[in-house]
């Protein structure tokens, strides 16, 4: 029922069809599955089916995630036959780096090309607590939020789990050069992770697994625009992963103006789902609240927001709008941002104002790809 509703609303979301991407190969390349898509148990299963010993899976994981080799050939404790079989059946590289740009604050933005020619973005952010990677889950997005650059060309396709995992592996390989580690992952790049739920879950399991990238669940954050049935499903997974909701408005009317998905998933039902999540997991939720000048950023909105989330175990992240040329939103003046924050604090709500990273290199989601897309369609 709820899924039907989503389909209907998503059909309403405008899809601007692009021409073939510039770098798409003329003949369809023979695409192999990414080895990074497989969980350890799936790789064990594959090995069994292919007449190999399941314990090899742990060895392969070690090559992939600890030694981070770039060819199957290098997996020297596997038989030549197995290495060949892996090579025939799987791809070890499905992303190639088109651009990596470093900002003055150390943020690095990667533009990767997929095997079928589409491009995606990944961002490495340096914090005092560690290195955080922001991953993309879809090529484009069909949610249609009115302020967001990622959704401008509609959805092209879902990413496979391996294409999401490889983003982190690629960034880790870059960090290997300076002996540093990816310590945190946020699923806040292009796309709606709950619209690509199964791949997102496999991704989570691989990066979280101790034999995978071993990134602690509490160091991983997933953010959704509010696909209610998936919030229930996610709550029932009982993971320790941090969960964020892009709320952006304190009432139904305003939310549906900013985010068309709110027409399918109403705010009252959404808040019920959020309460279910916090009750079921005992964990708090992060509300992301973009401040869009003159739209949702008055002290009255702050009071209304405080009422809406009263009693929910939560944290509010205020995000001053990132300028997107195709969108008309303007920044909230600094003193008004502080006034908004003050109201929330007065009402006993945990709140922070999000620090900007890499604004000199288009690090906000979808901005680099948007430029690339403009070239693709030339
Ligand atoms: N689709 C998921 C993941 C994206 S996370 C989601 O909606 O949560 C990226 C966050 O940045 C979301 O909270 C999104 O609403 C917000 N965002 C998108 N465009 C923005 C902009 N121009 N300014 C500020 N925040 C923006």
From TrEMBL:
Its cofactor is [4Fe-4S] cluster. Its EC number is 2.1.1.192. It catalyses: adenosine(37) in tRNA + 2 reduced [2Fe-2S]-[ferredoxin] + 2 S-adenosyl-L-methionine = 2-methyladenosine(37) in tRNA + 5'-deoxyadenosine + L-methionine + 2 oxidized [2Fe-2S]-[ferredoxin] + S-adenosyl-L-homocysteine; adenosine(2503) in 23S rRNA + 2 reduced [2Fe-2S]-[ferredoxin] + 2 S-adenosyl-L-methionine = 2-methyladenosine(2503) in 23S rRNA + 5'-deoxyadenosine + L-methionine + 2 oxidized [2Fe-2S]-[ferredoxin] + S-adenosyl-L-homocysteine. It is found in: Cytoplasm. CDD domains: Radical_SAM (cd01335). GO terms for molecular function: 4 iron, 4 sulfur cluster binding; metal ion binding; rRNA (adenine(2503)-C2-)-methyltransferase activity; rRNA binding; tRNA (adenine(37)-C2)-methyltransferase activity; tRNA binding. The active site is at residues 121, 365. Residues 127-360 form the Radical SAM core domain. Keywords: 4Fe-4S, Cytoplasm, Disulfide bond, Iron, Iron-sulfur, Metal-binding, Methyltransferase, rRNA processing, S-adenosyl-L-methionine, Transferase, tRNA processing. [4Fe-4S] cluster binds at residues 141, 145, 148. GO terms for cellular component: cytoplasm. Belongs to the radical SAM superfamily. RlmN family. Specifically methylates position 2 of adenine 2503 in 23S rRNA and position 2 of adenine 37 in tRNAs. Reaction proceeds by a ping-pong mechanism involving intermediate methylation of a conserved cysteine residue. This is Probable dual-specificity RNA methyltransferase RlmN.
């Amino acid at each position: 029922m709820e899924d039907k509703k989503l389909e209907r609303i998503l059909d309403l979301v405008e899809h601007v069809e692009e021409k073939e991407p510039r770098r798409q190969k003329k003949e369809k390349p023979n695409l192999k599955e990414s080895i990074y898509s497989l969980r350890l148990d799936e790789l064990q299963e594959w090995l069994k089916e292919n007449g190999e010993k399941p314990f090899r899976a742990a060895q392969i994981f070690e090559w992939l995630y600890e030694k981070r080799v770039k060819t199957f050939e290098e997996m020297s404790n596997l038989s030549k036959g197995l290495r060949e079989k892996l090579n025939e059946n799987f791809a070890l590289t499905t992303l190639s780096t088109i651009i990596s740009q470093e900002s003055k604050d150390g943020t690095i933005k990667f533009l990767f090309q997929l095997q079928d020619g589409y491009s995606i973005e990944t961002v490495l952010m340096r914090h005092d607590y560690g290195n955080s990677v922001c991953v993309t889950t879809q090529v484009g997005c069909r949610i249609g939020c009115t302020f967001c650059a990622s959704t401008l060309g509609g959805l092209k396709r879902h990413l496979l789990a391996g294409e999401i995992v490889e983003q982190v592996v690629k960034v880790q390989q870059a960090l290997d050069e300076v002996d540093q580690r990816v310590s945190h992952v946020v699923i806040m790049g292009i796309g709606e992770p709950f619209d690509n739920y199964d791949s997102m879950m496999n991704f989570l399991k691989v990066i979280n697994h101790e034999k995978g990238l071993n990134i602690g669940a509490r160091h991983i954050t997933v953010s959704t625009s509010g696909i209610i049935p998936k919030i229930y499903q996610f709550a029932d997974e009982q993971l320790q992963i941090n969960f964020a909701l892009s709320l952006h408005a304190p009432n139904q009317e305003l939310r549906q103006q900013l985010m068309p998905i709110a027409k399918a998933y109403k705010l009252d039902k959404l808040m019920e789902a959020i309460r279910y999540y916090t009750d079921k997991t005992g964990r708090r939720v992060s509300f992301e609240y973009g401040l869009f000048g003159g739209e949702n950023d008055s002290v009255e909105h702050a009071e209304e927001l405080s009422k809406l989330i009263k009693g929910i175990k939560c944290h509010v992240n205020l995000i001053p709008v990132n300028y997107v040329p195709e969108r008309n939103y303007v920044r909230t003046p600094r003193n008004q941002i502080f006034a908004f924050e003050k109201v929330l604090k007065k009402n006993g709500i945990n709140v922070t104002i999000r620090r900007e990273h890499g604004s000199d290199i288009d690090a906000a989601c979808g901005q680099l790809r948007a430029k690339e897309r403009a070239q693709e369609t030339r």
